[in-house]
Amino acid sequence: MKNRRKKIIGGIAVTVILVVGGGYAWAATSDQQELDNSNPEEIEVTEEQALTTFSDEYDQTVESLELETSRDGYMYDVESYDNQTEYNTTIDANSGDIIDTKSDNDDDEDEEEHRYELDQQEEISREEASEIAENEAGGGQAREWKLERVSDSTQIWEVNVLENGNETEVAINAEDSEVLEVEQDDD
Question: Which end of the chain has fewer CB within 10 Å, C or N?
């Protein structure tokens, strides 16, 4: 009876491990497929248009703007905040429609975190950042972007470049085009 119970428990444990591990593998593969199948030429809405759509709807300070792939095409993710709340707003990069807004109340623990307002006038364009990142990566195509102010004096573009299934992330000073970091994904 003890042996049978051990076999059953062991079987359940192996099944759980396989299901959970398979779920993670599927998610990673799914994310990579979205990136592989993305086409930046399908982006109809510019960063400026997305930010205008956002500011027409909300009175919040923008912290960052990210353009990334999803199953439904490219989406902008606008991270913003006010005195008590952090927000994430998703805008369709093809239609310009606001898809979703989520909010999270600031915790007292986060008071140490300093936030910086995105300066939309002081950056190089996404196209310029893409060209710099593609050159640094040694080829490939820029597929995802994030524009973020990280200090009083520095605003950066983080650009993900994809070539033959390999991803390279390039951080670029958005004000003077200096390459700050290049990181290759070795997966």
Answer: N
CB within 8 A of 3, min separation 6: which ones? Answer: none
Reduced 3-state DSSP string for 78-124: EEEECCCEEEEEEEECCCCCEEEEEEEECCHHHHHCCCCCCCCCCCC
When divided into structural domains, the chain yields a total of 2
Assigned domain for 163 exists: yes
Q: For residue 89, is pLDDT > 60?
A: yes
Residue 28 — very low, low, confident or very high, per pLDDT cuts 50/70/90?
Answer: very low
Instruction: Classify 147 as helix, strand or coil.
Output: strand
For residue 127, give every residue at least 6 positions away whose Cβ sits within 8 Å of its Cβ, in sequence order, or none: none
Residue pair 167/160 in contact by the 8 Å Cβ criterion: yes
| CA 21 from centre of chain | 24
175 and 134 assigned to the same domain? yes
Amino acid at 182: V
Domain that holds residue 145: 122-186
Percent helix, strand, coil in the chain, to 5, is: 35, 35, 30
Mean pLDDT value of segment 97-119: 79
